[in-house]
Amino acid sequence: MKLAELKWPDIASLDKNTPVIFPVAALEQHGHHMPLFTDSLLLGEVARRAEEQLAGRALFAPLQWLGNSDHHLEFAGTLSASPRTYLDLLNGLYDNFIMHGFRRLIIINGHGGNHVPGQQAVFETRQRYRQRSDLLLLFGTYWLLGGKPDQQGTAMAQQQMGHACEWETSMMLAIRPELVGDYRQVREVPWGNPFLPASRGWITMDRTAPGHIGLPAHASAEKGELIFKTFTADITSLIERVINWNGQSWDG
Predict the structure, then answer these.
(1) Is residue 213 one of the residues assigned to a domain?
(2) For the domain that residue 104 is a member of, what is the CATH number?
(3) For the chain, how many structural domains are there in total?
(4) Among 10, 14, 119, 168, who pairs with 6 as Cys (CB 3.0-4.6 Å)?
């Protein structure tokens, strides 16, 4: 079900155990060969496929395209909500639908800069509703839900998500190839080791002058379709677990 296409009495009449899905992404630079709207286009496609597979058993809000992209602001065109502003936005999404009576709320994320604020928002929301043991509040980044596209039989150069990388470029080639520039000539920008396992404060310019991170030259539409299938299965499986939750247990 698509929230934007329903009327308010339709929402009021839904079973309040219906999972509500909030896709969140970004509008930010993606190197010299990828469009600014990459994260939103990719998550939008994953969410579209998941919504179709779930066949009316979950409610999908429209994609929220403004993300926390402060680390990309040196690159022209990037739009960003600051981390604390973004926290308030995510907290508000949860609060709105708790007020509407819904109990199972999931934010699905498609941008790396949203991950830490998203985890904080889901933590803060649970603290505000301390007496509500019937609430199930989740935040998940779609490429961190367990799927391993690099282990699915198609040779990939990368083993993890980068930025305007082999994986993202492949996904864009699968759905919007006309928006992809000459990725075959783009040179590798490695991940490096930023004092791992500690967390280092960084801006994107610290890591990459052209804006991408990874190996976009290895991309293909075939790989993109496999990646979409993998991550759509991850999201669908998570939502199925939410549907099957007994309403009180810690385990899911």
Answers:
(1) yes
(2) 3.40.50.10310
(3) 1
(4) 10
Q: Cα–Cα distance between 211 and 208 in angstroms, integer?
A: 5
Q: Nearest 5 degrees, angle CA 149-CA 152-CA 156?
A: 60
CA 166 to chain centre: 17
Q: Tell me the residue range of the domain where 14 lies.
A: 7-244
Confidence grade of residue 154 (pLDDT, cut at 50, 70, 90): confident
Instruction: Tell me which DSSP letter residue 157 carries.
Output: S
> DSSP secondary structure string, 188-213?
PB----SSTTSPPP--HHHH-SSS-B
Q: Is 14 exposed, middle or buried (0-12, 13-18, 19+ CB in 10 A)?
A: middle
Indicate whether 252 belongs to any domain: no
Return the H-helix or E-strand segment holding 90: helix 83-99
Residue 180 resides in a domain: yes
User: Which residue has tokens 């939502």?
Assistant: 239
pLDDT in tens, 24-74: 999 999 999 999 999 999 999 999 999 999 999 999 999 999 999 999 999
**Residue 42 gets which letter from DSSP?**
H
